[in-house]
Amino acid sequence: MRFRTYLQPGEQRIIRELTASVAAFHDYEVEIAGELADENLSKGSETSGYHFFLAEQEGEIVGFTCFGEIPCTRGRYDLYWIVVKKNCQGKGLGRELLRKTEEAIKTRGGQKIYVETSSQEAYFVTRRFYERCGYLEIGRFPDFYEDGDAKVTYCRDLPAE
Amino acid sequence: MRFRTYLQPGEQRIIRELTASVAAFHDYEVEIAGELADENLSKGSETSGYHFFLAEQEGEIVGFTCFGEIPCTRGRYDLYWIVVKKNCQGKGLGRELLRKTEEAIKTRGGQKIYVETSSQEAYFVTRRFYERCGYLEIGRFPDFYEDGDAKVTYCRDLPAE
User: Fold this and answer.
1) How much is the ipTM here?
2) Contacts B146 to A, Cβ<8 Å
3) What is the mean pLDDT of each successive set of 10 residues along chain B, which is 161 residues long?
4) Is A76 close to B26, i.e. CB distance below 8 A?
5) Which pLDDT belongs to residue A161?
6) Residue A69 lies in domain
7) What's the number of domains chain A is made of?
8) What CATH code is carried by the domain that includes residue B39?
9) Partner residue opposite B144 with nearest CB, options A29, A32, A73
10) Burial A33-51 (b: 16+ CB within 10 A, else e)
11) How far apart are CA A77 and CA A110, in angstroms?
12) H helices present in chain A, as ranges
């Protein structure tokens, strides 16, 4: 497994395909992931504010994260996406991607990472994943995505060296 | 006082000036307000997702709001900005702008409005304003903007007719 900190031209397509292949994501979410990749490639990682971190196996992208500093904050980052290819799940790659993304965020001066997800049953595994990776629930906004579907916000303080 | 629901080409400058004239906003916040106006004018209100609502007095823009539907939600809107020119404050214009913005959001099918602000003393008047306009605090994330500065999130359900 190799990791890299940049997208290459044309890889928007792969970001969309990978996101679409994961059952948890809706079409409009796939489109948003693709748009962030478009922004990253057209404006550059720094100007766009959307940074990508990729896992590659034998030349194929099998997972990625997308993150960025939250505007008007100092060193607070949002993790927008973490996606692992279907047949690569359950082998610890998500955890490894998350840890390496946290390292990349720390290197940039990041101190806290926020992540948002749904309260619905379909996201139970996702929530458990964040909890097991040391993320704490800091808020739950009822009926946020739609009636009956709350937004759950998690946060992790990046441990000082 | 006249109100309108669109920005005109070149008015990015006025949005920046108006925002900069209000002591509560930092330089980087002024820049963000300007960028949203740029996006609105270059991509159009619908494609950009950033809608503007303006108050005009004798041909001069004296206040505005900027709002947009929150991605991945149904009918949930963020109020990104509400700005009233310094010497027009304290006369109920902010409340009127907010009420008319709520009407515009309802017309678009919006059901809830979210607004975020700082826990710092400098934003006490802002928080009181939202509370008096019927917004409820639904979350407080400590040390969000920086250490000691929490993000306070308010929400208002738009009353059904």
Assistant:
1) 0.90
2) 73-75
3) 94 94 85 94 94 96 97 95 92 96 96 97 94 98 97 94 67
4) no
5) 66
6) 2-157
7) 1
8) 3.40.630.30
9) A73
10) bbebbbbbbeeebeebbbb
11) 7
12) 12-20, 27-43, 45-48, 93-107, 124-132
Of B76, B139, B146, the CB nearest to A73: B146
Q: What is the pLDDT of residue B51?
A: 97
pLDDT tens-digit readout, A108-133: 999 999 999 999 998 999 999 999 99
Q: Put the strands of the sheet holding B149-157 in their side by side order.
A: B2-4, B51-57, B60-69, B76-84, B112-118, B149-157, B136-146
Best mutation target, A112, A135, A144, to test chain B (most B CBs within 10 A):
A144
Residues 6+ apart with CB under 8 A from B31: B16
User: B122 in helix, strand or coil?
Assistant: helix
Closest CA to B37 of B76, B72, B67: B67
Put simply, the answer to whether A141 touches B138 (Cβ < 8 Å) is yes
Record the pTM: 0.92
Interface contact flag, B29 A72, Cβ < 8 Å? yes
